[in-house]
Write a structure and sequence with these properties.
This protein is of the alpha/beta class. Helix content is 34%, strand content 22%. The structure holds S-adenosylmethionine.
């Protein structure tokens, strides 16, 4: 991946629209998504049978598909119309999914109506993260759980350099320049504060151990 020389996206379409299908193929069985992120997030979500679950930034519906298979009623949304199309195609009418940007209030969802929520690899793309997190807090039932996966601040720091304490948007081109992405780097304390300021109590902070099979697929991410 490279730092981008560009200062903005090439069109007004949401960034992930440009490579939604390629992302789906990559995330379906790519080591980082299929062997690291999804197993960890799904384990933390626990038993979802009979529960109402919100999938924020659902992408192509890989999580939603699994949660529906585990007996959850899933409501998903994503900023990218292409991602929403792919999620509908993957999960069909068992998924209630729509285009929505986390920068705006979840005004179509009532207070305290979800047992659980997830935001997998999404929150670092949002500018006003505290406001977005407040909205997710609002729609969760008291005691509801919210599972989030995001970049590790140390891996961003190792890759990007400068100060670990920088809070700034980063633009990069990934996948031989085909994926232009924009996300926020921030130190761990800042990220934790965004959650507590939004009303959440952080119960667990998990750095999942990679599965042994990742050693062959992704030598950069191994146990030792
Ligand atoms: C790395 S993908 C993760 C997709 C999915 N959660 C998964 O793990 O397979 C990031 C997703 O976040 C979505 N996204 C980025 N910014 C968003 C925003 N402000 N509101 C809603 N979705 C957003 C993108 O369109 C993309 O589908």
């Amino acid at each position: 991946m490279t730092r981008s020389q560009r200062t903005g996206s090439e069109s007004d379409a949401p960034l992930f629209d440009h490579f939604a299908e390629e992302y789906e193929l990559h995330a379906f069985d790519g080591a980082y998504n299929a062997l690291y992120d999804r197993p960890a997030v799904l384990e933390l979500l626990g038993d979802v049978k009979g529960q109402r679950v919100l999938d924020a930034g659902c992408g192509p519906g890989l999580y939603a598909e699994e949660l529906v298979a585990r007996g959850a009623e899933v409501v998903g949304f994503d900023q990218s119309p292409e991602m929403v199309r792919l999620a509908r195609h993957r999960v069909g009418d068992r998924l209630d999914v729509r285009v929505h940007d986390l920068e705006s209030p979840l005004d179509w969802l009532d207070d305290r109506t979800f047992d659980a929520a997830l935001a997998a690899l999404v929150i670092h793309h949002v500018d006003d993260r505290t406001a977005a997190l407040r909205e997710i807090h609002r729609v969760l039932r008291p005691g509801g759980r919210f599972v989030v996966s995001t970049h590790h601040p140390t891996s961003d720091w190792l890759r990007l350099g400068a100060s670990y304490f920088s809070v700034e948007p980063i633009e990069e081109d990934w996948h031989e320049g085909r994926w232009h992405v924009r996300y926020w780097r921030a130190p761990l304390q800042r990220t934790c504060e965004e959650f507590t300021d939004a009303g959440f109590l952080i119960e667990r902070l998990v750095e999942p151990l990679p599965r042994p099979e990742m050693a062959d697929r992704s030598p950069m991410i191994t146990r030792s």
